[in-house]
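Action item from last week, closing it out:
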Amino acid sequence: MLTPVTILTAAGTMLVLAVAMALVLGWANRAFHVETDPRVEAAEGALPGANCGGCGYVGCSEYAEAVVLGGAAVDLCPVGGPSTAGKLAEIMGVGLEEKVPERPVVHCNARLEDRLGRRPYEGEESCAAANMVAGVQGCAYGCLGFGDCVAACSFEAVRVAEGLAEIDYEKCVGCGACARACPRNVISMVPFRHSRVVVVKCSNKDFGPEVKKVCKVGCIGCKACERAMGDYFRVEENLARTAPEKFEPSLDFGPVLEKCPQEGIVFLGLPGAEGRDGVAPGRVEVEFRTTVDQAEWRG
């Protein structure tokens, strides 16, 4: 049976221990306290919280810290756009330069029926896996169509129709996740100063006869576009490219679209926009770097 003395002793001991622990914790809080910049929390609050990685950082928290503590640019968030960049610039007390938004472009125009030399594939249905298998389809530069880009997009802005990836520009925020997910680098980020752009939907650098063996709609480097509109189109490495820095709103692309035998020159962007809408005046060098260009051939 516990006596009053025992109970009081136990209670006193617990009280002493509690006071001692409080003193230790208070000392530790002061000794190990790390000062945090209040701007980090403010910057994180200004970000949309999408954690898409489009800024180049793991998530919004890491980007906020990079802006405040690491001097990262304030205009890297594609989801928040100019409004978020403006808020971050205000928090950091810096100026903000105009930045042209970027959107993804799929540099392939071939649906399943247009692809020649395609054979059945029974492996894992992902572009990354299929890209490791030689001869899945004749064109080594084309879209594989297994939807890695669809899975990577957090905004449901990408779909695969008839084996070809398509971008819904009304939903797209330009995070670049689809471009990073494409193992063949068929998708690239292109500046969209206006609602639409003119692009060549192909990335095959082979000579025309070889392209025709593997694709019905691939660019054959015929230079018809260059001859019709040499100030805007050029053919390099057997592939037509655009020179949007020379764009003028008055340009008529109709003749070029009619002359392209492969119908690979198209307008991309928001639906309903005028076909002669402009593109970014700065030169856009789309990187057509595919797995073929990176391969080391032996034999």
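Closing note: The first strand starts at residue 102 and ends at 106.
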